């Protein structure tokens, strides 16, 4: 399998999809159909997924596709080549903010992540990786993450997870946020993962993510040394939703041991 | 007083300061002095404030200046023309993320906000307003905020404020975040205020902000109909730190009445 060629094809698809979204979007901005914003987003989301499916099937009809919008076939195993696609991660940001939404794509072969992409559609910023070759932010190689103390960490975490909830002992999460330097929350898992792999955040924690939210990100994670698991410390299976943490390797285990207590 | 001329001068200052910061910053990125990042930021912060002070004094030496870095004279009244300046809001973002930091400036006369600016240094995006004339995002006029239900609101709030704290009954804040659609947290008050005035967020709440964090933002708020007060619903006095909320007018009062209980 020619991974370089697939990488090239994937990038071309992503840039083209990004342009299509920006074009559809700027048209909407002009016509100001505010009341129809949700429908418009659903349409753009689905059209973008269909665009990816058509492109991938044209490339190789045997490749399987797992997509957020469920426009492809049902996939129940990661055997062979599988694309995991989120055409627009951060839908609310797309509607209200006109920024902070992302295309994210992972390409797996027999369950092993080969290629990963997180694309900031409005900034036209691409974070990507090729398994075993490294990770890049646009044209610059990304560095391995540097160790830090947990007290210096900035962590992406939604405020809900520090309030009583059915997933976690929230008292432990309160201890965590009182220990670290600060928290952020952007409303897009792909954005928070992109920030972790590039050292802009030191961890990101979520109680429930789907394979398409993290597929591309986990491939980039491996190349920069970030550790991505569920909250039990196990690898995500990429077929079902699960809890999720991605972190700088110097604090991943410490967060799981000291601050995460699943119910 | 020729407000249009002052507006023109202010914008020129801001764009020039932004360029100086980006230049200093890209030099740092090249030399990769990671260990000295904090010192570098302190220096850029101070140099930028000094730059503004010199520019303003050259324009009119009688204008007073309140700045975060305290490089100007002591100001204990808002009488006459007063500039309120934060040369870099979002210092941690500046250090770690190389984005999401802002110059924000307010120009007041006898305590009345006349001009307000929030400038995204890396994106080169300017949100600004002239009292009574309107507000702009770059060259586009900003619209008055449209009413919404609290259940639809996205609110900027730090996770700390939904945990036990000395300012507020956090149980009420938990009720708030369970009522609304979502929360965000960006690590820059100026960014969150810019997002509220442009309808990208519907409110932003903080337990402690200083005059320079919000001076410029409150002038923009007025032009788009956002309401900015402390958490008692009173106007900020711009000489002392205080609690703060800026919100879409349809939910400001509701948040204060139902969800804020100061200790």
UniProtKB/TrEMBL annotation, chains A, B:
InterPro entries recorded: Inositol_monoP_metal-BS, Inositol_monophosphatase-like
Biological processes, Gene Ontology terms: inositol metabolic process; signal transduction
Residues in the signal sequence: none
MF terms in GO: inositol monophosphate 1-phosphatase activity; metal ion binding
Coiled coil location: none
CDD domains tied to this protein: IMPase_like (cd01637)
Gene3D superfamilies: 3.40.190.80, Fructose-1,6-Bisphosphatase, subunit A, domain 1 (3.30.540.10)
Cofactor dependence: Mg(2+)
Keywords on record: Hydrolase, Magnesium, Metal-binding
Positions bound to Mg(2+): 68, 86, 88-89, 213
Protein name (database record): Inositol monophosphatase family protein
The organism of origin for this protein: Lysinibacillus antri
